[in-house]
Design brief:
The complex is a heterodimer. By secondary structure, chain A is mainly alpha-helical. Chain A has a single domain, classed as MetI-like fold, CATH 1.10.3720.10. Chain A is 77% helix and 0% strand. The relative contact order of chain A is 0.15. The model of chain A has no long low-confidence stretch (mean pLDDT 90). The mean pLDDT of chain B is 91. Chain B is an all-alpha fold. Chain B starts with a helix and ends in an 8-residue tail after the last helix. Chain B has a single domain, classed as MetI-like (MetI-like fold, Orthogonal Bundle). In chain B, helix 2 runs antiparallel to helix 11 and helix 9 packs antiparallel against helix 10. The longest helix of chain B has 31 residues. The chains are: A mainly alpha, B mainly alpha. Chains A and B meet through helix 2, helix 3, helix 7 and helix 8 of A and helix 4, helix 5, helix 10, helix 11 and helix 12 of B.
Chain lengths: 234, 237
């Protein structure tokens, strides 16, 4: 049933392939999480402004993306993304064929999904800071940028770390879906290996253990970060 | 004029796709109608197991929750659909009648997944019931079963309704993954339309609208339940 000999490193087994696939999963997760936080900063800011249009756009984006399945978002971007990029390129006078590579598409897709969750976390973190903090900084004569960078951002980050840890776990698990784009991460590698060796159980259990290792390890890391940033506070 | 507009709309690709995807709505609903109630009951039982004073039970449930929450749902679906099917003993057992069908594999995987999350949610709810409420129940001579049925569960459930509502929405979205085991629900149909018409946006947007609608209904249901079971929080009765 479970064939350990198929998991050795080198030409006889799939050990090294799986190690590379795990690295790919980590790379995609980190890049998507980064893109997600980048988009989320704007989405959270748009939700907090007084402009009704910006508020509407931002909440429309988060409601729609969170309301439809992740797989559908990935399909839409994977199959529709290249066509969209070609249309944009046509406006600038380029008529050739453009194909985005699987890594770019995966990072964009997972990033867009992850951003909806991150934006809520960042918004809640911003709202949890007492108003007096910004007011005190203002009365000390700090400029708006200084207030944002030196007073608000450190506190937002401290409040957001537990929430971002949860988003990270979801993002990490969502990367299993990008195997449909053909990018060789853990899940894709599992399908390839089980098709070659006709032993799906071995490789699926391996994949489960790899994901379990990644989620456990990263939750330990986020706990450490949380403890570290909480130092000096109750 | 109006007739022209209607005939124009019915001629568009997105409308045709919408009708096609809509015909697969019952497949998605069937998945939910079996796995959600089953998941709810099992979640409550597992939550009680998680806080059981027998260490063996609570440890076993805790490691089950840890494993399921630490792995993606896709791995679990594949493990049940491809993994179990590759074991000879399973193929020869009576369960094979069900397990050879992608539908029942989907139901099994979704239930296993939601129970892990649900049990953890309900555990939080049960533990949030204050000691005074349990003690007053005991003082009135309630038996343990009656205490749970009349006091602990009602208070705990309404406490966790918003969180459990989130889990229900995640489940609606999770049904789309069952399409990867050749089960033709809404996402599977949308994928098939895409392969036939080469128009990805129209196919997936049609499916997306239906999922949004399903989730909208789910949110309304949860809000109604919150309103119904929290009479003390209503402004005017």
């Amino acid at each position: 049933m479970f064939k350990f000999e198929k998991l050795v490193f080198g030409d006889l087994g799939w050990g090294d392939e799986f190690l590379l696939a795990m690295l790919m999963t980590i790379v995609v997760s980190i890049l998507s999480m980064g893109l997600g936080i980048f988009i989320a900063i704007f989405a959270a800011w748009a939700k907090l402004t007084s402009s009704k249009i910006l508020k509407f756009i931002s909440s429309f984006y988060t409601t729609v993306i969170r309301g439809i399945p992740e797989l559908l978002v990935i399909y839409l971007i994977f199959f529709g993304g290249s066509a969209l990029v070609m249309k944009i390129a046509k406006v600038f006078g380029y008529n050739g064929y453009i194909e985005l590579n699987a890594l770019t598409i995966s990072v964009i897709a997972i990033g867009i999904i992850s951003a909806t969750y991150s934006s809520e976390v960042l918004r809640a973190a911003y709202l949890s800071i007492p108003k007096g903090q910004a007011e005190a900084a203002k009365s000390l004569g700090l400029s708006r940028w200084q207030i944002f960078l030196k007073i608000l951002t450190p506190q937002i980050l401290r409040h957001a770390i537990p929430g971002l840890g949860n988003v990270w776990q979801v993002t990490l698990k969502d990367t299993s879906l990008i195997s449909v784009t053909g990018l060789v991460e853990i899940m894709r590698q599992t399908r390839i290996a089980s098709n070659v060796e006709h032993s799906p159980l071995t490789f699926l259990i391996t994949a489960a253990f790899l994901y379990l290792f990644l989620t456990t390890f990263s939750s330990k890391f986020f706990n450490f970060l949380e403890r570290k940033t909480k130092k000096g506070y109750a | 004029m109006l007739f022209n507009i209607i005939s124009y709309i019915t001629e568009t690709l997105i409308y045709k796709n919408f009708i096609l995807v809509f015909s697969a709505l019952d497949e998605t609903l069937l998945l939910l109608l079996i796995s959600l109630p089953l998941g709810f009951v099992l979640s409550l039982i597992f939550a009680l197991g998680r806080i059981s004073k027998y260490t063996i039970i609570s440890r076993a449930v805790a490691s089950y929750i840890f494993t399921i929450r630490g792995t993606p749902l896709l791995v679990q679906i594949y493990l049940i659909y491809f993994g179990l099917g590759s074991i000879k003993a399973v193929r020869e057992s009576i369960f094979w009648v069900l397990l050879k069908e992608p539908f029942w594999c989907g139901v099994l995987a979704l239930t296993i997944n939601t129970v892990a999350y649900g049990a953890e949610i309900f555990r939080g709810g049960i533990q949030s019931v204050t000691k005074g409420q349990i003690e007053s129940g005991q003082a009135l001579g309630f038996s343990t079963i009656k205490l749970y049925r009349r006091i602990v569960f009602p208070i705990a459930l309404r406490q966790v309704l918003p969180t459990y509502g989130n889990e229900l929405i995640l489940m609606v979205k999770a049904t789309s993954l069952v399409s990867l085991t050749t089960y033709m629900e809404m996402t599977g149909i949308a994928r098939k339309i895409m392969a036939k018409t080469f128009a990805p946006v129209e196919a997936f947007v049609a499916a997306g609208i239906l999922y949004l609608f399903l989730n909208f209904l789910m949110v309304q249901l949860v809000q109604y339940l919150e309103w119904k079971y929290n009479p003390h929080l209503r402004l005017n009765n």
